[in-house]
Amino acid sequence: MTTSTPRAWWKTGVGLVLTGLMLFPVYWMINVSFTRDQDMRASPPHLFPTNGTLDGYRAVLDQQLPYLGTSFLVGLGTVALTVALAAPAGYALAKLRPPGGPALSFLLLIAQMIPGIIMAMGFYAIYLTLGVLNTLPGLILADTTLAVPFAVLIFTAFMSGIPDELLQAAVVDGAGRLRTFWSVVLPVSRNSIVTVSLFAFLWSWSDFIFASTLAGGGDHQPITLGIYHYIGNNNQQWNAIMATAVVASIPAAVLLILAQRYVSMGVTAGAVKD
Amino acid sequence: MTGLSRRRRLAAVAVIALAAVTGSACSSSADSGADGGAYLVWDPYPQFADDSEWVALLKKCGTSAGVTVERTGYDTTDLTNKALLAAQQGNSPDVLIVDNPVISTLAEAGALTTTDDNKLDVSAMEKNLLGAGQSDGKTYGVPIGANTLALYYNKDLLTAAGVDPAAVKDWTSLTAALTKVKAKGKKGITFSAIGTEEGSFQFLPWFWGSGAQLTSLDSPQAVSALTLWTDWLKQGHAPNSVINNTQTTSWQEFATGDYAFAENGTWQLANAEKLGFSYGTIAIPASAGGPAPAPTGGEFVSIPVQKKTGRYETSQKLVTCLTNADNLLTTDTTLSYVAPVAAVQERQATADPKLKVWVEAVRAAKGRTGDNLGTKYPKISEALWTAVQSALSGGKSPQEALAAAQTAASTR
Amino acid sequence: MPSTTETSTAVRDQGGAASAAPPGPPPSRARRPSRWWAWGFLAPVTIYLAAFYAYPLYRNVELSLREYTVRSFVQGGAPFAGLDNYRTVLTDPAFGPTLTHTLVFTAASLTFQFTIGMALALFFHQHFPLSRTLRALILVPWLLPLIVSASTWSWLLNSDSGLVNAALGVVGIDPVNWLTSPGWSLTSVIIANVWIGIPFNLVVLYSGLQAIPTEMYEASALDGATGWQRFWGITFPLLRPVSLITLLLGLIYTLKVFDIIWIMTKGGPTGSSATLATWSYRLGFGNLLPEFGPGAAIGNLLIVLALIAGLVYIRIERRQQLR
Lengths: 274, 412, 323
Hints:
The complex is a heterotrimer.
Chain A: H1 7-33, H2 55-63, H3 65-96, H4 101-111, H5 116-130, H6 136-159, H7 164-172, H8 177-188, H9 190-206, H10 209-215, H11 223-226, H12 238-270
Chain B: H1 2-21, E1 38-43, H2 53-65, E2 68-73, H3 76-88, E3 95-99, H4 100-108, H5 115-118, H6 127-130, E4 134-135, E5 138-139, E6 142-143, E7 149-154, H7 155-161, H8 171-183, E8 187-190, H9 197-209, H10 220-234, H11 247-255, E9 259-265, H12 269-272, E10 279-282, E11 299-302, H13 312-322, H14 325-335, H15 342-351, H16 355-364, H17 377-392, H18 398-410
Chain C: H1 6-17, H2 39-52, H3 54-65, H4 70-75, H5 84-91, H6 95-125, H7 131-138, H8 146-156, H9 163-170, H10 185-210, H11 214-222, H12 227-238, H13 240-256, H14 259-265, H15 276-284, H16 292-322
Helix pairs in contact in C: 1-12, 3-16, 5-16, 6-10, 6-13, 8-14, 10-13, 10-14, 13-16, 15-16
């Protein structure tokens, strides 16, 4: 932790280069979002949007903002439900080892292999019977299926690293299983909770197939469907598509950075393990 | 099916339980309107927002039929799956607008009503356009507008290269023009040969223009058409990127001003006005001269099968309203399509003389699922685009590629 | 994996690495009597699995065992076909090449994603100015809808107007037909998929690194261990459970990938970048006339592949245990 030597800034330099490399396609997306139609396939390509246009952004700001709100709500709902379902399961599989637990882990593995479109078809049939097509809770519930198996397996892997002595100590202190889970296991698992939340959020944020099948006709459409305003039957408005992606990723990126900050603080605070 | 529905019911109970856990008190949006005054319309025009003319027209037609219209625009590929799924679950919309080759698939699935059931009047529609919606003497929908392919050219570039576009009458003169353009250091032609229906759509004018038939993919004529494309790529007249180009990508290439010709559709007319150079259009030439028959594109309005057959009457009013002369004119102008009715075509051509070429092209065009191919077409088309891809990417000679295609299309 | 899990490994390793820590718990404790009550913690997820995955899974199996046409898909009454759909798929001349592509795609993607993800995780685990912000920024690709990121890659790799070929041209290399030549298309989709997968590996491995107590490093630093020794002596063993699960999940997600490939090359040209997942999608949903049966059969073959991977994972786990 205390490695702030003069070498640190040199590392920042390397970090910037690595990040730059990783984000280059993102830069390209931004570049295209400002590009006029006639320059899109210029050869050689323009590195900067010379003669740029704001048409894409004009279209997006006029039409897309409500979709962003929906995406946020769905993302947060997915995170909450995923953690609520998966954390206790991870704890049980890692530490309590009930008979049949491995079989359940195995089922979770299989569950992730079902093609998304088949899952969506199943949900469509169920939701239609229930009349919850085109509702936010419906979409949230469907989106959690993207994250729950992953979350359980990740929680299992991480929670298995919690020293047994820590849990033993809690039991000695007279805490019940539930209390141990709530006040010992969850706090030291903060790290994995954030990891899981992050992925749950990102997966629901970028989900298209559930959104289209289950929420395509309603008032609650997420941003991935918003993009389809620029994909007509024969024609695609690429600067607007890319502009939507840019506008959509800015608030989410800010959220990511804030979350990271919170995690790092949380981890240093909770790092006292033995 | 009973076991299945029991499972579904079980699942449903679990959903309720979990929905309660999520604290979902707000089931705000109404159930997809199986009853009541709302009529559902699905279309493949997600680019039209709620404040667009298209949606205004839908609402207006709803009002005059005495119902409210709930409309949803889907991505076009997504819409086919969604329509099948909805039909399976008995939840089809009242009015469904889909790309014309999909009609035969949905009709095969028994998801669409015929004009006998829904009493739609299709007599005004041009026969060659209506063909895509017909099979076994039954008509499953009404075209709402048509488009087809032609060659756009860059006037400035052709003038500089000394090419007279009017002299491009057949394949030989076209290739000669491309050679002249290349000598000027510019690029010849761009099109879309992607491995989807779009690729077949773009290849068909050349295929048909050679005299080949879809029932015999490996005929010498067919080989000559594929050889034409392959040679263009080999000689650098067409870019290698065509193998992966969608029609939009190919248009973007043309829009750079580096290309002399581009094979593209009616729908690009609005974008063509925004080009940084002057352009013109000619019909795609047939091998021996004259215009080649191009495939028709464009959407059909259909009335899916409903449990409550009483709804057809109102749906029929809605569709009739959408496809009456004035409304067709509005819709096809916004979509940059050619109307499916001769009288409206005349009005379009008078209003905008540039459309004349396109009206003629549409009249000469041919339905893909016509010739009684129906649901055989998708298999043939897949074999065809695969052959085009393997010849263009150098995997096989045109002859071998098309022979393999014919085998693939006739088996299975 | 009866009774033994990664738990005791991790704990034992922790004990071993930090020699000051108390000795690990006796293994017998893990074999204590019935713990059926622990299912209380598992109940929500079990109900959830049964409710939402059972039906689609059943549906996928059912689709693959019947001879569906569009008509019977909508109207019902598809005849039972036994294993015909599987036979159709397995005897298709495209099966062999497609399986090979799937294996190459998966192996190459996993290797590069994991190695690069691990390297980045180790790098960003050091604390230097801006490290947290930069690490968060590397996740941005995940926020993009796949249609956007995959399209951007096909933009960059375009034969004629792509930036990659333009850059190659600057250093005097001939343009490569990344997406349009059968020899390169698989490489191109692998590159894009590796890029998309790096953030996943980075995040999970980084969280794993954070769970390693810093005292261990301090202790070994006192012993004069080099960075390389520390990695193999402490980091790698302690990261093993997390690494294994990352690889396993990565494997499953990679087997399943179809949208990136579909958007970039549609599996082509001529099937040269087709994997089982894209093939399944093409049959079932990428055509005007869907063939649900064979499509679902391929989907189920993929599930079997994932099952095999899961079994291998458990074997490795157990061998780890016995060592």
